[in-house]
Amino acid sequence: MDSAGTQIAAEVSYGVRSMSAPLRRVLLRRPTTTGDFAAADWRTPDPVLLGRQHDEFAALLASLGAQVELADPVDGLVDALYARDPALVTARGAILFQMVKPVRRLEPELLGAEFERAGVPVIGRLTGDAVADGGDFIWLDEHTLVVGRSYRTNEPAVAQLRALLAEEGVTVASVDLPHATGPDHVLHLMSFISPVADDLAVVYPPLAPVSLMQALAVRGVTVVPVDDEEYLSMGCNVLAVRPRVAVLMDGNPRTRAALEAHGCETHVYDGSDVSVKGDGGPTCLTAPLWRA
Questions:
Q1: Among 112, 137, 132, 110, CA closest to 123
Q2: pTM value > 0.90
């Protein structure tokens, strides 16, 4: 019985309940060069540079110890490059979302097929009027998921996720995101906070809800503040590949230096087209499959 249990455990290579536990497996989707970039609110990228930067980003993650699963591009769906948003992977498998942005509504099921090819079961789907984007979710610890209620993620989604994650013993807390520049601009929870260890997070305080800042303080989480200029260049969008080992977009030297002052090892990538043109940093480009 014990040996069988050990064998089953060894075969499981998926599950996420942390923002900074070692990133064992991660799914990326290659960028398409066809489609209406303007309709998706992109600035038109250089197709050669777009592909090269994505390849270099994938190679960087692999060099840092992650097994990178690459999904094929989806012709016409330029936002599908940002694999974080259509779903959430938990300890039991993937929950597929419904998305507000019209040009992204096909993405959850397409990503679900990639999860299943990678051996990650789909355990649930948002239904009815529930909508969500993956950028509105962070794990504070393995038992606490924080959801940002935004123009992309609504209360019915929070309620459905509470029910789905109750089976895993996870508490789902929600915070209201500010209006900021309104519904036409993407503001996710992860636009202004990126945990890089259990006790360390990069934060842009002017947009952070008071309740979230208080929760960080109660937990003893040190905040690395991002300034106004580097917030605009996605300095707050930081991907932890393991505690205090972080990937961020090049061009944010003050945030990088602040992380290193807190004992972090930092790595940067050129995101001039793969990130800047579509407004999606390293967390947006990645769908973590397994952190352990």
A1: 112
A2: yes
